[in-house]
Each structure stands twice: as structure tokens, then as C-alpha cells.
Amino acid sequence: MASTACFIIVSRNDIPIYEAEVGSAPKEEAAHQHQFILHAALDIVQDLAWTTSAMFLKAVERFNDLVVSVYVTAGHTRLMLLHDSRNEDGIKSFFQEVHELYIKILLNPLYLSGSRITSSHFDTKVRALARKYL
Amino acid sequence: MGREVAESCVDGVIMEMVSAYCNRFYSSKPELAARRIEAIGFQVGHQLSERYTMERPRFSDHLEAIKFICKDFWSELFKKQIDNLKTNHRGTFVLQDNQFRWLTHISIDASPDNVEASQQDSSSPTSNNAAQFTSMHLYFPCGIIRGALTNLGIPCAVSADISNLPACSFVVRIKA
Questions:
Q1: Which domains does chain B show, CATH number per domain?
Q2: Its GO CC terms (chain B) (predicted)?
Q3: What is the pLDDT of residues B58-95, one digit of tens each?
């Protein structure tokens, strides 16, 4: 089933360090809106993150039929996913696996914290996880 | 993730790092050596805190984060928890460890095993050199604590107090 999905990782300084269109549907003209929606949802995430100590904040905002889900790490890095599917367990597993990949990137001593993630290996793995869980 | 390293390797790396920075890289400027060692600890603490907070829920306030450092973080690093935590409720915490693991291999008096002290001039007070040598070793764990707390959102300054070895206190001052 074709699905649209856009995934970004935002660092604690509100700088996006990774962006990817991971949906299986072909890229449509409105795809540029996805990043805009995700950035606009950051304010809501900021308020919501302080109300709970859980990592996985479920659907924080809706736009037409697209939903934004967010996963916040202890270092206040936000993994945000814009999607149209309703598979919550799959999304939670996706976030947890990407979190583990992100920690592996962080453990690289040559990686400057808060800079863009440029590893193609990371990109390939994230897309594979998206195909598997979303 | 989660492969293990022998503790003797960690001890060896730390001793060599301190000795390299103090005696080879910045031999005439101990303050710069201390800053570099602390910066290395900062990055390590940053990465370790991200890794050890993965499974657990996030922290709601500063005290929760400090308690995490005292319990889970310390037991992951040193296989024991902090023995005593004191606070003045105004942003200063004292973490006391009664048997700090990384200092157990450093003798308290300057013996021939202690290569750094034996290279010093024999007329200078040996207790001073031993104290300076020990404090150099403590910059690394201070940096680790500072890196971990900064990653959890708490900018702070960490210093070590070695008035009674082998007990070691880390004073954390949260920047307002």
C-alpha cells in the first residue's frame, strides 16, 4: 500500500541534522510541504516534551490526513515522522531502531554533535527500516 | 552495541593519556593539559549519557538527572553507585565516592612505581607532586560528568576534591 512519509531528525539546537522522504508513494508536488509541516510542529513538540517523561509522543499534530509523530531522546533530540498510516506499534519500533542507529553515529569520535548526518550507510539503513515498519 | 572492554585496558589508556598530555604535549603548561583532558572527558560523557539513557524514560528535573548519574551511570562505568550525594538545594551537588575505582592504582605516597614522581626533583615536596598527579587524573572523570549533564540539558561546572583519598568528591555547580 503506497504511503507518504517524511522523516527528520532535529537536534537540541533546533537544527535539522537529517531529512528523508521515506514513503513508498511516488514523490508528489506537495512533498515540499512536508518539511514545512514538520518544522511548524516543532513548537507543539517543545511544549509537549516537558509535560511527559515518556520518549514516544504519539500524534502531536494533524494536517489534512497526515499525522506528525515525535520521539524525543534524553538529549532532547527529536525524531519526527510525518505519515498517513495508523500503525502506531510499527512507528514506535521504527523510532526505537533509528534511535539506536543515531546513537551509533554519535559514538563516532569524529562526528561533531549537532552537525548534519552525512553517512550514506545511515541513510540506507533508515530507508530499509522505513520499508520494514511503515 | 554493548561489546565490553577489559578494565585494565581502560586503566592503561587513561594513564597513558594523562601522561602524554602532561609530559609530552603540554609539558610546560599543566593548565592547558588539564583543559584538554577535561575536553576529552566531556565528549566521552556526552556519548555515554546518550547511550545509557536509551532504554529509560526521560528526566523531569535536575535532581532526577543527578540521581541517574549517581546510580545508573556510575554503576555502568565503575560497577558501583555513588556513596553519598549532598546538595544545598541552590544548584550545588557533591557526589562522594568512597573508593574511586580509577584511583586505586595510584599510590597515595610517591613510591618508585609512580614514574611521574620519580622524575621530579627530589628536593621538591613529594606530596605536592602526588597531589598534582592525582588531580590530573581526575580531570577526565570531571569531564565525563560535565559532558553527561550537559547532554541532559544541565550546563554545569564540575571539580574534584581529593582531601581524603581514596575517597573522592565531585562538586557539581549548575550554571544558573
A1: 7-174 (3.30.1380.20)
A2: cis-Golgi network; trans-Golgi network; TRAPP complex
A3: 888 888 899 998 999 999 898 899 999 999 888 899 99
